[in-house]
Amino acid sequence: MSYDSVSGLRAEQNGPVLHLTFDRADRRNAVNDVMLDAMIAHLAAAGVDESVRVIRIDAEGPDFCAGSDLIANNTRSERKPRVGSTQRRLPNKANRLIPLLLETQVPIVAVVRGWAAGLGFHIALAADFCVAADDTRFWEPFMARGFTPDSGATWLLPRLIGLVRTRQLVMLGQEITGATAADWGIIHSACAPDQLDSVAAQLVGQLAEAPTVSLGLAKWLLHSGNGLDLDRHLQNEALALELASRSDDFKEGLAAFRDKRDAKFEGR
Known about the structure:
The protein is α/β, with parallel strands linked by helices. The chain is 44% helix and 15% strand. The protein is built from eleven helices and nine strands. It has a six-stranded mixed sheet, sandwiched between helices. A three-stranded mixed sheet has the order 5-7-8. Helix 1 (33-46) links the parallel strand 2 (17-22) and strand 3 (54-59). Helix 1 (33-46) runs parallel beside helix 4 (94-103), helix 4 (94-103) runs parallel beside helix 5 (119-126) and helix 9 (212-224) runs antiparallel to helix 10. The protein is globular. Pfam families: ECH_1.
């Protein structure tokens, strides 16, 4: 498959890694509709592209993402939009992106430095793994703008940190650092800024060499299990086990165990 770059979002596949980079540093990588549409298309394509085994999302410049570009997204016409335009628009934009991040059966790593606000924060939350510089600033800007949360903020955060801390972030607009986010369990890990690229590369490399089918099925189980009773979830676990046991990587894993060597998974 071809992953084309667009203005504000670079896309490049290096072996098993699809690398998506926000490239709008002059606007703190605020996401406009062109970037959103491309990102959604790339995630959907990568989910069925057997050559992609991990997706890395990061950014050019000092900041990860300042959220949605509200000015660009609301000044496309000189005429006032019809009532309900936000409700009609979101299902095809940010509200499609977040479920794709959660459901695409390819592991996703977000690499964050500088500011991650609003949608930028939520992309980091929805990734399977987020590694951030310890001085990163995570922020929910909605109350400061007289607005309400979007793109899954009030769904993602309570599941990760509970309601009390979510209220601090969403209702009081408290900023937290990457180090605090890691301490709270919001993100995978935080490290010194000069170590971020090496830490991220090690994690991405580990995922790229892992059993991709089993990883994807485990991701599905973790996400879908939130809304299911135990009996239904156990049925899904049985289905996932059946599928994983038919993969070439499962056979390689058994052979490696028998031969007392490290497995060499091919992602199939």
